[in-house]
Design goal:
- By secondary structure, the chain is of the alpha/beta class.
- It has one domain: Immunoglobulin-like, CATH 2.60.40.
- The chain contains four helices and eleven strands, in the order H-E-E-E-E-E-E-E-E-E-H-E-H-H-E.
- Strands 1, 2, 3, 4, 5, 6, 7, 8, 9, 10 and 11 form an eleven-stranded mixed beta sheet that branches.
- Strand 3 and strand 4 form a beta hairpin.
């Protein structure tokens, strides 16, 4: 019998709370993010969606991956073996993964209010991709990694956007951001169906 989605979300949160304090710390820090000593709930509010960006492995541990949307809005910085939750308005948008010396990847999301979604940030060839790539993949019950989500959360540190970072220009580290986003958008549109599907979050993919 399938596990109901709400209890499954509770299990994810409890697993992170039980084990994250014992996980490996981050050697590299972002000036825009703080490491939480005690994990916080990432439950969505009634009028907003929550997207959890999860980077579970220590591939390229010195690499910071910056997540922005198509308006160049700073969503958050991802570090190795961490996750962070971003509350965003419901509806459709693109997310982009920016990293120094790495290819820029994009994904399309269509989010419903009151739901929690998961995104897997993959560097290098973690998912069979190219060696020079910071990729974004939808984590949903149809994903091959779905069964790993609770384990990944438990082994990762939770980050939170620093209080003073709400309006920062998070893309200032990437002077070629316009070119990156334009190219990644074109690539996203031209992906064949299987590649496009794993870079898509649909409203009912949320918990």
């Amino acid at each position: 019998m399938p596990i109901p989605r709400r209890p499954l979300l509770t299990a994810f949160a409890l697993g992170a709370a039980l084990f994250a304090l014992g996980s490996v710390g981050c050697e590299v820090k972002s000036p825009y993010m703080i490491v939480l000593e005690k994990p916080k709930s990432f439950a969505a509010t009634k009028d907003m969606a929550t997207v959890v960006f999860l980077r579970p492995y220590d591939t390229d541990p010195r690499e910071i991956v910056t997540i922005v949307d198509e308006q160049r809005t700073f969503i958050g910085d991802s570090l190795a073996q961490t996750y962070f939750a971003a509350r965003v308005p419901p509806g459709g948008r693109n997310f982009y993964a920016l990293a120094q010396g790495k290819g820029t990847d994009a994904m399309r999301v269509d989010l419903a209010p009151g739901k929690v979604y998961f995104v897997y940030i993959s560097l290098g060839s973690e998912r069979g991709g190219e060696g020079q790539a910071a990729s974004l993949f939808a984590l949903t019950p149809r994903s091959r990694e779905w069964g790993m989500v609770s384990t990944w959360l438990a082994k990762s540190k939770q980050l939170e956007i620093a209080p003073a970072s709400g309006t920062i220009e998070g893309t200032s580290r990437y002077p070629d951001v316009e070119q990156r986003i334009t190219q990644a958008t074109v690539t996203l549109r031209n992906y064949p169906a299987p590649e496009s599907d794993i870079r898509m979050l649909r409203p009912d993919d949320g918990l």
